[in-house]
Design goal:
The protein is an alpha+beta fold and 252 residues long. It contains three helices and twelve strands; from the N terminus they run αββββββααββββββ.
């Protein structure tokens, strides 16, 4: 009997290891399928709700919410708008210049950024401290970027987002846990992303919920041009904190 118990335990261990390996393979493969699908779309239009949590010095968790929209035409055209309780910001990129306008401050900034939308996202993060936490989903090679530092990947199961059946995936990095919900079927569009910051006290989260997703939409050049309204003041491109989605003084 003792020998039989040891064999059973060994088999359970093998099955458990195989299951974990299969889950990781499934999660990574599903993310790669999403990346291939999104990256292959020449034009996209989406609307979203997002929320970001901050932790006060008194360890109270406060959530701030926004809504917005995105129009993208690969490789080098982007128009985005974000409206929240503390900011109303539009960003327009035509492949050569990016312009940002904050209606709440009547201020705008512009900078040269020749290249693709992928290059723009990297430039805003690396050179100007703009986080753009959900923008990775729009990259032409999002799986390569998202999986670069992943230590663990798991397929959780099925979920439903706004009535749409989705595959639920979970990933772990050194300093963040993040979850992703993708539409089932042959159009694995992202529907929800949750990022949890593990190295910050009380583990605040950023969430983006994609409400509407359209591929293959018609666009025209004028969609990606913008002129600031009369009377708007120009600010330095390094002062983009004025366009933050959080109120002044909010602790990150």
């Amino acid at each position: 009997m003792r020998g039989l118990s040891q064999v059973c335990l060994l088999l359970l261990g093998i099955l458990s290891t195989a299951l974990v390996s299969a889950q990781q393979t499934d999660a990574r493969a599903m993310l790669k399928a999403m990346s291939d699908y999104v990256g292959s779309q020449q034009s996209l239009q989406l609307s979203f709700d997002s929320s970001i949590e901050v932790i006060t010095p008194q360890l109270e968790k406060i959530q701030f919410t926004n809504s917005g929209s995105v129009l993208l035409r690969r490789p080098d055209k982007l128009r985005a708008h974000r409206l929240g309780g503390y900011s109303d910001v539009a960003m327009v990129f035509n492949g050569k210049m990016v312009k940002m306008y904050g209606a709440h401050t009547k201020a705008y900034a512009e900078l040269e950024a020749p290249g693709s939308v992928d290059h723009l996202i990297h430039a805003l993060r690396a050179g100007h401290g703009v986080a753009l936490p959900g923008a990775d989903l729009l990259l032409s090679n999002s799986a390569e970027v998202l999986l670069a530092d992943v230590q663990e990947a798991r397929y959780i199961g099925r979920g439903v987002i706004d009535g749409v059946e989705c595959e639920h995936l979970a990933f772990r990095n050194f300093d963040t846990d993040w979850q992703l919900w993708l539409e089932t079927g042959d159009r694995p569009a992202p529907r929800k992303l949750v990022i949890t910051s593990k190295t910050i006290n009380s583990a605040p989260q950023y969430t983006v919920l994609i409400k509407e997703w359209k591929a293959g939409v018609a666009t025209k050049g004028a969609d990606f041009e913008f002129s600031p309204p009369a009377g708007a003041r120009q600010i330095d491109a390094n002062a983009l904190i004025e366009f933050d989605e959080l109120p002044e003084g909010a602790e990150r």
